[in-house]
Amino acid sequence: MHWIYISSHLDDIALSCGGLVWEQVQIGNSAGIWTICAGDPPAGPLSPFAEELHTRWGTGREAAWQRRQEDLASCQHLGATARHFSVPDCIYRRSSIDGAPLYTSDDAIMGPLDPVEAGQVQALGAELTRALPGDAQLVCPLAIGGHVDHRLTRLAAESTGRRLWYYVDYPYILEELGAIDKLRQEGWQAQGFTVSENGMRAWGEAVAAHASQISTFWPDLPAMQAALNAYYLDMGGVLLWKKP
Predict the structure, then answer these.
(1) What is the helix (H) or strand (E) element at residue 109, kind and residue range?
(2) How many H-runs (helices) and E-runs (strands) does the chain carry?
(3) CA dist list (Å): 77 to 101, 148, 228
(4) CA angle 58, 222, 230 (to 5 degrees)
(5) Model confidence, pTM
(6) Distances 107 to 42, 93, 146, 242 between C-alpha atoms, Å
(7) Which residues pair with residue 94 across a beta bridge?
(8) Would you state the torsion angle of the CA atoms of residues 188, 176, 17, 186, taken in this order, to the nearest 10 degrees?
(9) What angle is formed at CA 195 by the lines to CA 215 and CA 148, rounded to 5 degrees?
(10) What is the pLDDT of residue 141?
(11) What is the spatial distance between Cα 207 and Cα 18, in angstroms, rounded to a whole number?
(12) Engineered SS bond to 157: which of 52, 74, 121, 140, CB 3.0-4.6 Å?
């Protein structure tokens, strides 16, 4: 079986279901991780918000390039192939009307898409439709937590008209545990997947490869691995969901 995981950012699949990807590859499936918001920032000055994030990540303006290299290493740990699309992260995107940055704060990136990006959804959906093999199992984010790039990715994937699996957005789900109950109430069906001890180790290694992003969520790598272990146990496995 061929699985394609459609990711918003270069670390989302490693974070949300890296152990599952590793297990699928071990039993002879192929897996691809396709990251939508993997493009370079446009030329010109960046917003103070983007510069602040670069400082936290320790990357400077080469952040997108560095994160793509991290993703290639992460995918090696999982046995998956990587594909990087050219859409810039939301912190870099600008209005097509006046050139102003669209998302310039934590609140902005955890909110709705700016209306000027409606065309972006359709363009991405068309690009995915052309690129996706017909026999692949497709997995996209639920967009739990509401990150604007996760919303963009889900809408683009849904616009292809393909039957989709959905993954739970980790670690955003930790702040919205009620989202799982809501899915069940709405008739969504979940399938749970087991991850072995070796799979959990590979999961942690895949996340650790995204070195610039660790400080966003954890103080160090042992704390990250402990958090992944706790999340897996709390969920009773890695859950993929299908619409009713």
Answers:
(1) helix 106-109
(2) 10, 7
(3) 35, 28, 16
(4) 120
(5) 0.96
(6) 22, 16, 10, 29
(7) 101
(8) 0
(9) 45
(10) 98
(11) 8
(12) 140
Q: Cβ distance 92 to 42 under 8 Å?
A: yes
pLDDT of res. 3: 98
Q: For residues 153 and 243, give the distance between their C-alpha atoms in angstroms, rounded to a whole number.
A: 17
| Strands in the chain per DSSP E | 2-7, 30-35, 81-84, 137-141, 164-167, 189-193, 238-242
Contact assessment for residue 91 and residue 47, using Cβ atoms and an 8 Å cutoff: yes
Tokens 């989202």 belong to which residue?
Answer: 179
Contact 20, 1 (CB under 8 A): no
pLDDT given at position 177 = 87
Which residue in this structure is represented by tokens 């939508």? 36
DSSP string, 2-31: EEEEEESSTTHHHHHHHHHHHHHHHTT-EE
- Token pair 């709390």 in the structure block, residue: 234
Q: Sketch out the chain's domains with CATH numbers.
A: 2-242 (3.40.50.10320)
Residue 41 and residue 151: Cα distance in Å, rounded?
20
Question: What is the mean pLDDT, run by run of 10 residues, along the chain of 244 residues?
Answer: 98 98 98 98 95 95 97 98 98 95 97 94 96 96 98 98 97 95 97 98 98 96 98 97 96
* pLDDT of the residue at 164: 98
Alpha carbon separation from 161 to 129, 148, 169, 172, 192 (Å, rounded)? 9, 21, 22, 26, 24
